Prior knowledge:
- It comes from Pseudomonas monteilii.
- GO terms for molecular function: DNA binding; DNA-binding transcription factor activity.
- The chain has helices at 3-15, 18-25, 29-43, 59-86, 99-103, 106-117, 133-139, 200-209, 222-230, 242-245, 276-294, and strands spanning 48-50, 55-57, 91-97, 121-127, 144-149, 157-172, 182-183, 192-196, 214-220, 236-239, 251-256, 262-270.
- The protein is rod-shaped, with a radius of gyration of 32 Å.
- Strand 1 and strand 2 (55-57) form a beta hairpin.
- The longest helix is centred in the first third of the chain and has 28 residues, at 59-86.
- The two termini are 61 Å apart.
- The strands form three sheets. Strands 3, 4, 5, 6, 7, 10, 11 and 12 form an eight-stranded mixed beta sheet that branches. It has a two-stranded antiparallel ribbon with strand order 1-2. A two-stranded parallel sheet has the order 8-9.
- It is of the alpha/beta class and 295 residues long.
- Helix 1 (3-15) packs across helix 2 and helix 6 (106-117) crosses helix 11 (276-294).
Amino acid sequence: MELRHFRYFVAVAEAGHFTKAATRLGVAVPTLSRQIKDMEEELEVLLLERTQRKVKLTAAGEALLANARQVIQGFDAAQSQAQRAGRGETGRLEIGYVASAVFAGVLQRHVSRFRRDWGSVELHISEWPMHNLPEHVAEGRIDLAYVRAPVLLPESLDMIDLDSESFVLALHAENPLSSASAVDPRRLASEMFIMPEQSVGTLRVGELGGFSPLIVRQPGSLVAVLALVSLGQGVAVVPQSVMSKVCLPDVVFRSITGLQIRSWLGLVFRRFDRERVIHRYLETVRELSNRSHSA
């Protein structure tokens, strides 16, 4: 017995007439009659009492009707779900990020817009150490990753460039350098540096000041970096966005004279990924990124 048999049977039961049911289904009456007869022979029961004017369900037919409708509805739902998943309208995305993507507001904008447009997609979002993110995307442990660029990527990965921002110096409020509105890199030669996950800002400050930064700690997340600054353990070169997003006792921020290098976020993805739901997310990100750059 096949799904079409259930569809034919339900159509006849609901129409109460073979001719009406055949018209609704777009098949010939003899074909419809033969299909119902095949069902009855296979089940070895009479499903319909036939007269010249109409048909009536037997007790066996009544019992079958509710189940037949459930079978059809279940099949239609499964088919619809598969089609929607194929179009990227449902599914699941695993997204990793570094904390600065949250401080900059980039992750929030992208997730909010994607959920508005594709609310049936299940998003799992988690923070990771930045050095793990490219590898996790390449291995398929996560689908997408927000990183603080520049970062080395395997050949299988690509990246969308997102918002950029300046670097600032985070230092303890009692540090003598905090009295200046902008700090000359040469005055940092004797300072102890707490290194964020993205080291480019710190290294560039050393180049401008003519020294190799003394790295005393590299704790991971920006919050951990600033916590050590708050405890007087050293200074840190961090993205400007943390100034308004992270408030810790005794931490002040100052601009750095002559530091023109910028920090920027990127979204890492697998270059040849065929999952439609991933492409939906990338389309959302590109659209919002283009709007931001053209504003």
